[in-house]
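Let us practice reading a record.
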Amino acid sequence: MPEPPSGPRWAFTQVRLSLRRPWTTTMSTSEHRDTIHVAMTHNGITGLGEGAPIARYRESAEDGLRALESIRPTLEAMDPSEFQKFSTEISGRLPGQFAAKAAVDIALLDWVGKRYGLPLFRLLGLDPNDTPITSYSIGVDTGEVIREKVLEAEAYPILKIKMGLQSDETTLAAVREVTDKPLRVDVNEGWKDRETALRKIQWLESQGVEFVEQPMPAEMISETRWVRSRVRLPIVADEAATNLRELSQLVGAYDVVNVKLDKCGGIQEALRMIQAARALGLKTMLGCMVASSLSITAAAHLSPLVDYADLDGNLLISNDPYQGVEVRGGRLILPRGPGLGVTPCAAPP
C-alpha cells in the first residue's frame, strides 16, 4: 500500500525590518521592528505568513517563535486544506501570541489560494476594485522633521498624524504649514482623562480632521462614551478592540473599529470581527503594525470589506523583503497572483 502523504513542513524565522526614520508614538521610539515569518510547505506548495508582535500586547518575536516551536508537532500533523479547523486548533493551543497566530493563519490562506490557483480576494468573493484609499502615517517628531515627512508623503492624499503628547498643538501646526490634506489623528491612548480628550477633540473639529483614533486608554470605555456624546468627530477604537468579545461594549463610545490581523490572530478572525462590527452598526477600518509587504498584503485582501484603511506599515521600512500590494494615488492595488500574490524582492547586489 502507498504511504499516506506527509504533513506540512513549517519554517519559522525572525526578520528585522529597518524603519526609514525613527518611529515615535506615545508608547515608544524605535528604529527597527522584529517580525515573525513562517513558511508552510505541503504537496509542493508553500504558503507564507508574517506576524508583527509589539510590546503593548506583551508579545515579542522571540516569544512568538518559541511558542510556535512548542506546537510544531501539532502544526505538522494537521491538514492545511482544513484551514478553519486548523486555525481554531492552533488558537486554543497558543494562549496570547496573536501575532504568531496571525503568521500561521496568513500562511494557511496563502497556501489555500495557491492550491486552488486563486487570489485571496477571489477566494473570499471580493471585488479588488472596491479597495479604499489608505492613509499614510506621520510619527511624532520635531516640527522641522514633521514638515519634511509631510512633504515626502506628497503622493498620499490622506495623512494619519500621531498625537497624544504635550506637543500636539505644535505637531498639527507643523503639518498645516505645508498641507491642507484631510487628516486622521491617532492618539494611541495618550490622553489620560476625559476633560483633556474633550478639549483636544473639540479643537481638532476645526482642523480638517476626519476622525480621532483611541483618544484614551482602552479600559476607559465609559469615559470615552461621555466624550463621544459631546463631540462631532467620529472616534475609532484600536487598542480597545482586540477581539470579538470586546465589540459589543464599544457601541455608543466608538463609531469605528480598527481591525488588525496581529491583534486578533489572522485573516479569518479579522473577517469575523469585520462582520460582527457591521452587525453592531459600527464602521470598520483595517490597520496594521510596522511590517513587510507580506503582512500588509494579507490585510489588503480584506480591504474591499471596510470603510477605511491604514495599511502603510510596509511603506515605513527600507528593507522590505517582499513585493505585494501597491498604492497608486493612495488607493490599494491588490496583486492578482494566487494566494497573497506576494513575490520576494531581488537581493541587493
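A brief commentary: DSSP finds twelve helices and 15 strands in the chain.
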